[in-house]
Amino acid sequence: MKNILEFRHVDYSYHSMSGEVLALSNINFTVGEKEFLVIVGPSGCGKSTLLDLIFGLIKPESGEIYGEQSSIGYMLQKDHLFGWRSIEKNILLGLEIQHKLTPETKSYATALLKKYGLYDFRNKRPSELSGGMRQRAALIRTLVTCPNLLLLDEPFSALDYQTRLNVAEDIGSIIRQEEKSAILVTHDLSEAISMGDRIVILSPRPATVVHMIDLHFDSALTSIERRETDEFKHYFSELWKEMNQLVQP
Amino acid sequence: MYSHNLSAQDLYMRRQKHTKILVRVMQYVILILFLALWELSARLGWIDSFIFSSPSKLVTCCKTLLANGDLPGHIGITLLETVASFALVIGFTLLVTVLLWLNKPLSKILEPYLVVLNSLPKSALAPLLIVWLGANYKTIILTGVSVAVFGSILNLYTGFMETSPDKIKLIRALHGSTAHVLFKVVLPANIPNLFSIMKVNIGLCLVGVIIGEFIGSKCGLGYMIIYGSQVFKLDWVILSILILCIIAMLLYFLLGRLEKRFVRE
């Protein structure tokens, strides 16, 4: 399998007037084509810093990151749809910025809207849509620019539990259907197991990769169906033990 | 059950409507009562109509001034100066705020100066401006600008800085430039803010223009007020003040309409 992203011995520190804080230390991992990688770790361990690095918003202090930063899509905790734009205009934002607004890309956007059930809502304002629909719109906004790697920074944490499960299933299956690679950052262990192909566990600050778990599920299962299998319980207890060792001194 | 619900809804609607009508009626009643009491006390000699005027005297005065063609000129010049200084304030505010936003060290450097200039009573500046620039309409427009501009820069800059950092990150994530951040997020997100700043500033510009006209003008409503008080034509003074009230209301109303068109949520 071809790797589309590789971290080699990456360090990163924050600087402030009160001193230097090492956030990431010697990070090594890869993401393969069409792979769904999940990164979990205690809160405040520097997961979001890791994503900013992957995206190229910040540069590592030492070590190397290999990958094509130009074709990465970013999905944040909140949908951040702009209230002053219609859903369609929101979705076209990326194309507008990248000067790629052509009849072909526009019809691709329309096709995505139709495929994922938002076509009838294209002229509505974001405030008129439910939380789940808004997250789907945010994902489409990312997908229309045709990235080959999606970064998802706790994209479901602002939703209530019921919606969260449904949206996670939705988005997971959209990403698989569109054959994208993805990195999901979360602190929800069951979410990690239900969505990922592989889990990377980070230690508390300074974060480093302490463990990786490969997940083997029947590929036909959706994320909600995965939750009902025996493997799920097995992976969960493994992950739970790992995480507990990390936070207990 | 259904019909019961409906009637409760009807009752609610009726109550809401009554409140609305009551408010409107009371607003007019207060105005009419005030005018009637004013007229009555002037006629019965409770107040000296030479000093306090009266609605009927004001109507006569207004008619005379309209007939000899003085009043429209005075109103026009004040209105023109106010609108001109308002336009300058908005243009200048946008320009400076964008520059400050683009250059954070510059904004840090200028902050104390802006704060001082904003809290300075601008009426104290007006006499200086008259001496420096002469007693003409430019000075008066500048006085109007000086009253409003510093506060609006400070307010709009605060709004710019409060733009959600995640929304900016989103634009960066879509590989947008600083210009994209400005035009796609920061400016559109601040349209409601800009309108509330404009609503405050239209009044401030009027204040500034009147101050300017007090000190160095031969026309405008501010001149009428000063001249009227000096020659004891208090009808002129009170009439001008009433016209100012109407102008202020009108300009505010127009901005409100504009806001309704542009700000939808």
**How many extended strands of chain B?**
0
Number of helices of chain A: 9
Low-confidence stretches of chain B: none
Mean pLDDT of chain A: 86
Helix content of chain B: over 70%
Provide the β-strand percentage band of chain B.
Answer: under 5%
CATH class of the largest domain in chain A: Alpha Beta
How would you summarize this macromolecular structure in one to three sentences?
The complex is a heterodimer of chains A (249) and B (265). Chain A has 249 residues and is α/β, with parallel strands linked by helices.
Structure write-up:
The complex is a heterodimer of chains A (249) and B (265). Chain A is built from nine helices and nine strands. Chain A is of the alpha/beta class and 249 residues long. Chain A has two domains: 3-68 and 149-247, Rossmann fold, CATH 3.40.50; 80-147, no CATH class. In chain A, strands 5-6-7-3-8-9 form a six-stranded mixed beta sheet, with helices on both faces. The longest helix of chain B has 42 residues, at 2-43. In chain B, helix 3 (55-67) packs across helix 12. The A-B interface holds A 55, 57, 70, 72-74, 76-78, 80, 82-84, 93-94, 96-98, 125, 127, 145 and B 164, 166-167, 169-176, 180, 184-185, 188-189, 191, 264-265.
Descriptive key words:
heterodimer; A: 249 residues; alpha/beta; Rossmann fold; 2 domains; 6-stranded mixed β-sheet; 3-stranded antiparallel β-sheet; globular; B: 265 residues; MetI-like fold; 86% helix; flat
Blueprint (SSEs and pairs):
The complex is a heterodimer of chains A (249) and B (265).
Chain A (H helix, E strand, L loop, with lengths): L2 E14 L2 E14 L3 E5 L6 H9 L6 E6 L4 E4 L11 H5 L1 H5 L5 H13 L15 H13 L5 E5 L7 H17 L3 E5 L3 H7 L2 E5 L6 E6 L8 H4 L3 H18 L2
Parallel strand pairs in A: 3-7, 3-8, 5-6, 6-7
Antiparallel strand pairs in A: 1-2, 1-4, 8-9
Helix pairs in contact in A: 5-6, 7-9
Chain B lengths: L1 H42 L5 H4 L2 H13 L2 H33 L1 H16 L6 H8 L3 H25 L3 H9 L4 H12 L1 H26 L4 H10 L3 H29 L3
Helix pairs in contact in B: 3-12, 4-5, 4-7, 4-10, 4-11, 5-7, 6-7, 7-10, 8-9, 10-11, 10-12, 11-12
